[in-house]
Specification:
Length: 401
């Protein structure tokens, strides 16, 4: 609220992973601003279209139109660039000297919600200075980025993030208080990362998150990250479930007790959270159900569950689908699934089914170690053929939920 009251503040960024309550927060702040008459005009615009780069032109036109309606004027032209000039002139109207002397300045609050990639506000017609991305980088990476030697390198790294908060956060977290040499190396690696063309996934997001993954220290934490990506579908991932799967996959072979394995898992999860690759889960249901021996190891609120941002999950699955991991995640498997399409050399298969009441006689996946079949409508399997597992001689973890 203090930032909104400050006339020098032109832009405020509310950044964070998904499902943290950012939209609810800004709506509450806007309501308080209305009650305190901080602005003369308010406009809340959903820009979730930024997920799809093909909708940029249409999306910018919508922002222009909604802002014009808020201000109570009509565009004289259809051309996007001319409309941008019209809108800019209208928004800067209160800066005229005559108005400053005779009238109270008009203060306008425009809220853009659900931003998935950088929006060129100059194209929209909203006067803007690109300082918010730098402020976010500096807040996370530390004041050292202001140094004469580091600042030009940090600006180039920021360019590689494409103005995307999730990319900035992950990179800045990994480079916090690092030397110029480390920043230069990060810049080289970001530029050399092969950009994967995945529909709905910004290339710079993939590059930055892959870089962050590559810089995780140790195979254990990398493997756990990939496992979380394959489990993250219906929201939170319980630590209890993760512990059982990780132990079944021999992630913690060096530990001879459940308690030590639990401590190792908590440590690895903490590392992933510190790297902005995992989030705290929601509050536990609190009904006391399913409290077993291993679940008792995660009774404290900080360690019951975790969750993963949708974009981080998508990147994790892309990485996991390649050698040597060979994860396969299939969502919304139909009841008439052709099971021969599932059969391959994958080591990990996770299937999420709309309705699945029976399995084929046999599923041939000779290298399969992890198999989870989950129904999202509560449907249960009627029968499991005795021969179903004959083609899975290396299977270690099996779960039907």
């Amino acid at each position: 609220m203090d930032a909104l009251r400050d006339d020098k503040t032109k832009m405020i960024g509310v950044c964070g992973m998904g499902s943290l309550g950012k939209t609810m927060l800004i709506k509450q702040v806007a309501q308080q601003a209305k009650q305190q008459n901080l602005f003369s005009t308010y406009n809340f615009i959903d820009v979730s279209w930024t997920r799809d780069s093909k909708k940029d032109k249409e999306g910018i036109a919508k922002i222009q139109q909604k802002t014009a309606e808020m201000l109570g004027f009509k565009f004289l032209w259809e051309d996007e660039s001319i409309r941008a000039d019209e809108l800019k002139q209208r928004l800067q109207k209160d800066k005229e000297p005559e108005k400053e002397k005779d009238q109270k300045k008009e203060k306008i609050l425009i809220i853009l919600d659900d931003i998935w990639k950088e929006i060129n506000l100059e194209k929209v017609g909203i006067p803007f200075k690109g300082e918010d991305a730098w402020c976010l980088l500096k807040k996370i990476a530390g004041d050292s980025v202001e140094g004469d030697q580091l600042r030009p390198i940090a600006n180039k790294v920021l360019d590689e993030c494409g103005g995307l908060p999730i990319a900035i956060v992950t990179i800045a977290t990994a480079l916090k208080d690092e030397t110029v040499v480390v920043w230069e190396n990060a810049l080289d690696e970001l530029r050399s990362c092969a950009a994967t063309n995945i529909r709905g996934l910004e290339k710079k997001v993939y590059t930055c998150l892959q870089w962050s993954y590559n810089h995780l220290e140790g195979d254990e934490v990398r493997s756990l990250f990939l496992l979380c990506g394959c489990l993250s579908y219906y929201g939170d991932i319980s630590m209890d479930q993760m512990l059982r799967y990780a132990m079944g996959l021999d992630f913690f072979n060096d530990f001879n007790s459940l308690e030590k394995a639990r401590n190792k898992l908590v440590t690895l999860v903490k590392t992933l959270k510190a790297s902005s690759l995992l989030l705290d889960g929601a509050e536990d249901d609190g009904d006391g159900s399913r409290v077993g021996a291993s679940r008792l190891l995660f009774m404290d609120g900080d360690h019951k569950s975790v969750r993963m941002h949708d974009l981080v999950r998508d990147v994790a699955r892309i990485i996991a689908s390649k050698d040597p991991y060979r994860f396969k995640v299939v969502e919304d498997v139909p009841f008439d699934q052709d099971w021969t399409e599932i059969e391959d050399e994958s080591k990990f298969i996770s299937l999420y089914c709309k309705a699945m009441h029976e399995l084929p006689l046999r599923l041939v996946c000779l290298k399969l170690q992890f198999f989870i079949l989950q129904s999202n409508n509560g449907a249960s399997l009627n029968t499991i053929p005795n021969t179903f597992f004959e083609g899975m001689s290396q299977l270690k973890v099996l779960a039907f939920t």
